[in-house]
Structures are given as C-alpha cells and as structure tokens.
Design a protein that fits this description.
By secondary structure, this protein is α/β, with parallel strands linked by helices. The chain contains 16 helices and 14 strands. It is globular, with a radius of gyration of 22 Å.
C-alpha cells in the first residue's frame, strides 16, 4: 500500500537546512516508519552521496551503548543517521548529544511512542532540533488514494476513517471497517495506555474516552469526569481522573490545547481544551451519534488540519460584557501570522451564525477572521470570510504555507 506523503517529506527536507536533529512524531500507525523508509531512499540518491547509517529495525537499539557503537560507522564527513526506536531508554539524550557533537551528521529519529521522545529531546536539543508531526492521511491524500472526487459523502468517509493508512482500503465495507476500528481501539488501549502506565482497568479508560468524545472542543475539569463516572455508579477520585486523562494524552490519542484570554492577552489556568488525534479511532469510543456528534467530528477535523499544517492552536475567550465571555474556537498562529476561526454546525440558525460573526467582530485587531461552514460557503461580510469545511481541507487558507516551527508564541507577542 503506497501513499504520497510529499508534503511531509518536503517539510523534513526543508528542516535539514537549519537543524541537525529531526524528530518525526505521530500517532501509532500513522505511517512514521513507512515515511522514514521513503525518506531514506531519497537521501540515499542525493549527490554528492552521504554516508548513511540506518537503525530502522524495531527493538534493535535498546541502550545508549548500542547506539553509540552503531554510530561509529558514520565516520568522517557528511552523513545521515536514521533511528526508529521501540521505546526511549536511559542515556538516550546523552548518546544523541555525543553523536551530534562528534559527527557531521543529520539525525532522523522516530519511534513507536513519540510523545515521550518529544518531551525529552525537544528541551534537551533546542534550537538545533525540529519536530515534524506526521498525521494520518490528509483529506487530499485520502481522495487521491481512493480516487474520489471531493463531496460531502467523501468527507464523511474520510472523517470515519480519520485517514488511518491501514484501514482506508476497507472503509467501503462497513462491517470489516467497524471490526478493524474496534480491534485497533482495543489494541491501542492495551499497548499504548494501560501497559506503559501500569493501569489495570480498561473499562475506566473507555469511559474516559467516551467523555472526551462528548466534550470535544471543551475544557474537562476533574470534577466533571468524576460526575460522569458517578452517573454510571463508578467512583473515582479527582486525581485518578487526571491520571487517566494524562495517560491518554501521553499515548498521543488525545491532544490538549490551552485557552487564550484575548481581552487580557494571557493564558487561562482553566485547563486545556481536548480533541482526538484521529477521528477514526474517536468513533470507536463515541456513544452518541447524529448531528451534534457530527459537528464535533468536523470541529476535530478542522483542528487536526491546522495542527497538520504547522499552526500553533489555542482556543480563545473574549469579553462580551462585564461578566459574559464568548469562545473563539481556534486562534492559530504561524510564521508571525495569526487567524481567528469560528465554526457553524450542520443545523445552525441564522441568529447563531450572526452571533458567531459578532463575536469575531469584537476582536480589535486586523488579523484575518473566518467562519468555517458545514453546509454552505458564503462571502466576505464585514471583513469576515465564510469558507466551507471542504474548501478549507482541500485548499487551505494560506495555500503557500508549509510546516514551520520558528514561530513566536501568541502569548509572547
């Protein structure tokens, strides 16, 4: 099964010109190892040729001593080192540091679990490291592989699979698809959440992920999690709720983004807003269907689009009155640019659409403002552009923008 991941490979090549270490991250089964293999083929064909050392067999490198021993083959001169780790190990940071100092090499790293790698390597090697997230297939990549024409039906099918490469080829067979997703969800809970965190109760994790589905795009305080568990006659402590949530985040399955107070220009300490890293896996945990959940899925897709395109994403809050606040669903920043995004649901009324537009007009700066529509595409009114979700996923907002990590965080500007 071959997928064209040109956008991701181009982003990696661009990063090579300015950093020495490239960390390729992403959810399990998003295609990191396959992409690493494709990248290796391209680097091998470069002129003048580089000395290449590849450590891509899972489980082959389990200690710093092994890594340093294999790195001796880099020798003198320009080289490239490809590492695909089963898991992090003691001394990894020190070994990578020694290799980067000793050899004139570019180090490409990925692994089965990349969230732990990201959390130890990025602080240790900044600014000479860049993180390139590899998402499941984008909407365009999905259409290309399935030879489909953009349509609502195609978007619905894409949302159902979440672009997971291993199940895209069977998503037209509903029975097989549902079994595959259920099996993948069970496997993910066991190997990526329960075992690494020494947790014992998969039903609790499933319940938590069901709650995250219902709370997509919202903050999720521990007391709300406990309340939802109590409705099913399950008692857990607030700390246990937070531990479960952190275990799911650490696995890469769910993502938390901070909330930015636009009026006061500061981050709020209300906790993060939660989304799934993949809408295909999300559907394995969602117990509600219909328009409400459909709108949550579309909001999740838009969030993932901006993350995939290298934007830093926040949720916004803005004062409307003395005590009333309104939400801006996405405040995105990249390359010194900022955009504000509101979304309308599948059955939104005209008054609700007007309210969302008026909230955007409350923002007193000149950065572009968009309303992403589920049902139709409008025009520019009061400086606010209306854009259909499929137009966003197909063509983007700034078509020439690619991944870029050298951005100034919104809260420091």
């Amino acid at each position: 099964m071959v997928f064209n991941r040109r956008l991701s490979i181009n982003a990696i090549h661009l990063a090579r010109s300015r950093v020495q270490i490239i960390l390729i991250t992403g959810l399990r089964r998003s295609g990191k190892s396959t992409l690493m293999g494709e990248l290796l083929k391209e680097v091998r064909n470069e002129k003048p040729p580089l000395r290449i050392v590849q450590l891509l067999e899972k489980g082959s490198i389990t200690s710093a001593r092994q890594l340093l021993s294999e790195a001796r083959a880099l020798g003198v001169g320009n080289s490239a080192l490809f590492i695909d780790l089963e898991d992090k190990f003691e001394g990894l940071v020190e070994a990578i540091g020694e290799i980067s100092r000793k050899y004139s090499t570019t180090i490409f790293i990925t692994g089965k679990r990349t969230q732990p790698l990201e959390e130890i390597l990025i602080p240790a090697f900044s600014p000479k490291i860049v993180c390139i997230p590899i998402s499941p297939l984008s909407y365009n990549e999905y259409l290309e592989y399935r030879s489909l024409v953009d349509s609502r039906k195609a978007l619905d099918a894409y949302a159902k699979t979440g672009g997971l490469p291993e199940i895209i080829s069977v998503d037209s067979d509903l029975a097989i698809f549902n079994r595959l997703v259920a099996t993948e969800a069970d496997s993910f809970i066991l190997t990526e959440i329960l075992e690494p965190n020494s947790l014992r109760n998969p039903s609790h994790i499933r319940k938590l992920l069901e709650i995250v589905c219902q709370s997509t795009g919202k903050t999720l305080p521990a007391r709300e999690i406990c309340k939802s568990f109590a409705a099913d006659k399950i008692t857990i402590s607030p700390q246990a709720a937070l531990d479960y949530l952190e275990a799911c985040r650490y696995s890469g399955l769910v993502i938390s983004i901070p909330v930015w107070d636009i009026s006061r220009k500061k981050l709020l300490d209300t906790g993060g807003v939660w989304y799934f890293a993949n809408t295909g896996l999300r559907q394995a945990f969602s117990k509600t269907k219909g328009r409400t959940d459909y709108d949550r899925v579309q909001e999740n897709l838009v969030f993932l689009y901006f993350i995939q395109m290298g934007w830093t994403v926040y949720q916004g809050r803005i004062d409307i009155g003395k005590i009333e606040k309104e939400t801006i669903q996405f405040v995105c920043e990249k390359k010194g640019k900022r955009i504000y995004i509101q979304m309308t649901g599948s059955d939104v009324s005209e008054s609700q659409r007007k309210r969302k537009r008026n909230v955007l007009l409350r923002i007193r700066d000149a950065w572009p403002k968009y309303i992403i529509e589920s049902e139709h595409e409008g025009t520019n009114v009061d400086g606010i552009r209306s854009l259909h979700i499929r137009s966003l996923l197909r063509s983007g907002i700034f078509e020439t923008e690619l991944f870029e990590n050298s951005i100034s965080p919104l809260h420091s500007s």
